[in-house]
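In response to reviewer comment 3 from the previous cycle, which asked for concrete evidence that the modeling workflow produces usable outputs, we include below a single protein chain processed end to end. The sequence was submitted unchanged, and the resulting structure tokens are shown without manual editing.
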Amino acid sequence: MRIVAAILAGGKGERAGGEVPKQFLPVGGKPLLLHSAEIFDGCPEVSSLLVVVPDGWVKEAKELLKPFRKLTAVIPGGETRQASSFCALRHLSPSPPDYLIIHDAARPLITSQMVRRIAACAPHPATFALRATDTVAEGAKGKVMKVLDRERVYLIQTPQGAPFSLLYEAHLAAQREGIRDASDDMGLLLRRGVQVTLLEGDRSNIKVTTPEDLLLAEALLRERG
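The workflow returned the following structure tokens.
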């Protein structure tokens, strides 16, 4: 089975502040993007690596990623995460892999063990997720509308994996249905009735979104050594 990894680094990272996309900001002594790339490049389960970056940053990313032997392409992404994910799928479609692992570059604390666990799920779709520990509610217009059952609520993480054909079909269906802002690939599979396995996530696998997250990621990487 041929397994390919796609790192989504196409976001502009506006909430992190500054003009440079957060994927290129230094964290733990190297650009954020490189932490994920190093993990995938070193995993024998992954045959090749594709990286999606903001339009206009392809040249810089190629230079940064030059040392990685499994890298096959750096391509521009779209305006949304869903669009960037589809850019990766469309690029791979002429010679599709059996299984695709998708990861957000904004999660630099991914580990080799996570990649192995996702790869071991192939050919079944799977995602990492954390059980909610706080009380979770639905809200609207500054009001609490409904408190959800915490035992049934999970916080979805990446990496995620699924057969390429299922992901591609789910994205095409979403486009036909006018869905443009899906924040998660597994959600598109669920819309089509596809079951997705939940794997216990890691609380250190944070998503870097704000300047405070950058500081936390720096501390966690330093602790990891």
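The CA atoms of residues 89 and 168 lie 6 Å apart. We consider this sufficient to address the reviewer's concern, and the full set will be provided in the supplementary archive.
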